[in-house]
Write a structure and sequence with these properties.
With 205 residues, this protein is α/β, with parallel strands linked by helices. Helix content is 33%, strand content 21%. It is globular, with a radius of gyration of 16 Å. The chain starts with a strand and ends in a 5-residue tail after the last helix. The relative contact order is 0.20. Catalyzes a mechanistically unusual reaction, the ATP-dependent insertion of CO2 between the N7 and N8 nitrogen atoms of 7,8-diaminopelargonic acid (DAPA, also called 7,8-diammoniononanoate) to form a ureido ring.
């Protein structure tokens, strides 16, 4: 049975796209970014495509391609577009699928819906990306609490970057969450680096 995972993070700039590339390469999965907000000439889809080495992965078209690099609700308003949850359909594929969100769980899509509402509608399992910084324990626990409160299935957490056992252990002990992977900081993020990382890191998928 094919696996479908929604990759979300405890905030912005914590490595969701790099982690998504690792998971796409590991599972030889398809990739789908439902909403691209800004950077249309170098989208997350383009970035992941340029980081993988396998020839099986297919890259599905975004549902919304917004021209401005802001929160989706604001970018959509500037583009005179209304983001509607009913327009999101999981791409048809016989392959595994990695879905990458935009920002964190509480990022607004319109006046009433958030990224977490999109995840709930798609009814897929979540992999949460965490990265160690002052405040990351709080942000990680809040994200897990939010997912659990909506009965969203959580596959586990990816700790991205330099290891911090104190931080990781308290998150695991407090939540009982599984660790999908510990992904070390890459000196240079490129195709070879991703391939070597996937070959050397243990993934619990």
């Amino acid at each position: 049975m094919s696996k479908i995972y929604f990759i979300t993070g405890i905030g912005t700039e914590i490595g969701k796209t790099m982690v998504s590339a690792c998971l796409v390469e590991k599972l030889k999965a398809d990739y789908w970014k439902p909403i691209q907000s800004g950077d249309l000439d170098n989208s997350d889809t383009d970035k992941v495509r340029n980081l993988i080495s396998n020839d099986r992965s297919f890259f599905h078209q975004e549902t919304y391609r917004l021209t401005q690099p802001f929160s989706p609700h604001h970018s959509a308003n500037l583009d005179h577009v209304k983001i509607d949850l009913n327009n999101f359909k999981i791409p048809e594929t016989d392959n595994n699928l990695i879905i990458e969100g935009a920002g964190g769980l509480m990022v607004p899509l319109n006046d009433k819906d958030l990224i977490i509402d999109l995840i709930k509608k798609l009814d897929v399992e979540v992999i949460l990306v965490s990265k160690n910084y002052l405040g990351s324990i709080n942000h990680t626990l809040l994200s897990i609490e939010a997912l659990k409160s909506r009965n969203i299935k959580i596959k586990g957490v990816v700790f991205n970057g330099d290891k911090n056992p104190s931080t990781e252990n308290i998150i695991i002990k407090t939540t009982g969450i599984e660790v999908v992977a510990n992904i070390p900081q890459l000196e240079k993020i490129n195709k070879l680096g991703i391939k070597e990382l996937v070959n050397n890191v243990k993934f619990n998928l």
